[in-house]
Amino acid sequence: MKVAVFSDTHTNTARMLEAVRQTQPDAVIHLGDHVRDTQCLQQEFPEIPLYNVCGNCDITPAVPDKAVVQLGPVKAFLTHGHLYNVDWNTDSLVYAAMEDECKIAMFGHTHVPENTELGGVLLLNPGTAGKGPKLTYAMVEIFENGAIACEIRKL
Question: Each residue of 114-149: b (16+ CB within 10 Å) or e?
């Protein structure tokens, strides 16, 4: 299963759309800050499952601030990150993911890509897809045996 992961698009959706066109993922995840930017994904790719959470810049969002989703054999914890103080460290995010028995925790907010492991939880931040000097996203591949491969890609 291939999953394209975006965060912090801040109304700049063209590169996100192009990445989805090129990679043709099995699912797309948007981790907030301008979650309304996902409307263009829903319109252009209605057949691709879309999972999203709101961020600190999302006013009166229609989606939750965290979610647990099943991606093949793997449970994933999704959040923007601001409620877990990811600017300082990721400990509380790891604990939250562990409580929900998630193997991977995906977050944004910092605009800094990250692909590390802590406490047996894979931490993935795709960086920013819309605002900053270096625009990035993540491609995640989940295998039938539960193995996970993540790659940070330039937009």
Answer: beeeeeebbbbbbbbbbeeeebbbbbbebeeeeebe
- Answer yes or no: are the C-beta atoms of 104 and 124 closer than 8 Å: yes
| Structural domain total, the chain | 1
pTM of the entire predicted model: 0.97
Q: What is the dihedral of CA 131, 71, 69, 3, to 10 degrees?
A: 10
Nearest to 81 by CA among 127, 39, 116, 49: 127
Beta pairing, strands 104-106 & 114-118: unpaired
Give residue 82's domain range.
2-154
CB neighbourhood size of 4 (10 A): 25
- The CATH number linked to 95 is 3.60.21.10
At residue 59, the pLDDT reads: 84
To 5 degrees, how large is the angle CA 96–CA 143–CA 17? 80
Task: State how far the Cα of 153 lies from the Cα of 79, in Å rounded to an integer.
Answer: 20
Give per-residue pLDDT as tens, 112-149: 999 999 999 999 999 999 988 999 999 999 999 999 99
